[in-house]
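Running this now, will post back.
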Amino acid sequence: MLEIKNLHVRYGETEIVRDLSFNLDKNEVITLVGPTGSGKTTILLALAGLLPIFKGHIASPTWRVSPANQIPTEKRSIGMVFQDFALFPHLTVAQNVGFKINNHNKINYWLSLLGLNDVKNEKPGSLSGGQKQRVALARTLMHDPTYVLLDEPLSNLDASLKETLRWEIRDALKTSGVSAIWVTHDQQEAMSVGDKIGVLDSGHLVQLDRPEICYGEPKNKFVAKFLGEASFLMGELDNEVAQTEVGGVKIMNSRKYSKNISILTRPWDFQLEVVDNGNGTVDWVHFEGASKLAKISLKKGNTVLVRIHSNTEISAGNEVLVKLNKDKCFVAFPK
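Update: finished.
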């Protein structure tokens, strides 16, 4: 286990990471996501020993880092995978993977696992971006690190490669039994590969939990909006049910709230029908392949995002009848 406790990290006099605490368990992948400047990469650099810590500690079963005891990178049993691959251009794929290790069986194992056998004699200049990232990961895992830190590992790749490669990297980490912290700016990537996802804002860890919890039960409106398309519908709470201008809905943990609440909705939470005299008007419609996203202005002042199948005929200016999914229990926040 890697323990991060009350960690503070500075650049000069500017504090970038504030009071960060979490544990990384054995064979666990934690993804960290947040806006630009939220401290994601700074956290990795501090964990790797490339930045000193100002307060708090980082501890593994074999070492402990504190402001008074800064342990160098090479003694932390940590591997890093960078967004720019950091390969040796004059070495072949096999030589990169086996750098400083003379174990051909082990080299062949990782070449095979990551689908690199066909290019093992090629040099990095002739490889695709996806192949380069597989080489970088294989080289890291060859050294049997206890932990792997991945800094935006897919950011330099084409969109068509990202989805496939994210699963290949996750599978390789799980096969090796190594724990990992994976930093990304891509919310979908973070939610799909992480056993847990941590959402950062201005150096603070706002929420750390399973992706389903962070998305479905966000701690606050920032997390709700950052992790996906979100609208907030005003409602009046009566016991466990809130009345809104599109109908009554059940509210999760309703006893926490007073009468007036703000209800989190996602675009698929709605049903939409074009009618002559509805409860809303379509402001715009965006075609997005398998679905369309529409912005609806409701007659009492709320604005919501609604997602519908792409074959639904709908245009800006249409009058619509909007209904909420009454089978769902919704998350709410104080108004």
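The chain has eight helices and 21 strands. More later if anyone needs it.
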